[in-house]
Specification:
Structural class: alpha+beta
Number of strands: 2
Helix content: 40-55%
Strand content: 15-25%
Strand order of the largest sheet: 1-2
Number of helices: 3
Mean pLDDT: 91
Order of helices and strands: HHHEE
Length: about 70
Amino acid sequence: MNKDTIGTNAGIIWRIMDNHMSWNYAELKEKSGLSDMDLCAAIGWLARENKIEFGNESKDLRIYLNFNPYF
């Protein structure tokens, strides 16, 4: 794994999430087909860039796009 691969995988996840829905980890893993390590790295990349947010809905960690990353 290298930074280019992580960035490419982050782009895959961002495009999956670009439907204004929240997702849980299992849903993202199934939809993307990424391994656990690749998915975690991609989520970390997007979190570091302030592109995603996390929320808890009924004991389920949800991940969604941050549509106001500068505010």
